[in-house]
Amino acid sequence: MNGWVLAATILLGAGLAATVWGVASGPPARRAVAQNLTTSVACPSLLLLAEGYDRSSYVDLALLLALLGPVGTLVFARLLAEDLAETRASAWRLTWAAAGVGAVVVVAVCVAQGPGRAMVKLLVTGALLIGGNLVASRALAGGFRGVRGG
Fold this sequence. Notes:
By secondary structure, this protein is mainly α.
């Protein structure tokens, strides 16, 4: 076991424990935030595993997850709009912590990869992960002003 795999294991263990606790307890708002946290944990873990096992297909999976995970959260926010209006989820510290972890992982893997096409794919994955999760968290916290329906 190398350091990349160990870091992925620690990230998955801590993140999935928090996700399971969020999904298993609390109102629908907390469950939607936990669903968003799943993407924030799984995507950087896949990037770490891609570097640890030297498998570029894991980066492709992380890219797909970074693209579709926040979209799923936005669908949940739209479908559960009435339930989420009662108790708004405010998880900005958790969101920024997850974004910071994602940024650190993307930078570390980019440094290990070196310049090239793989680095561009990693940077796109990181931008989608961080940007998508910030937008999804904002939608869960009450939406955007001036947008009809949230």
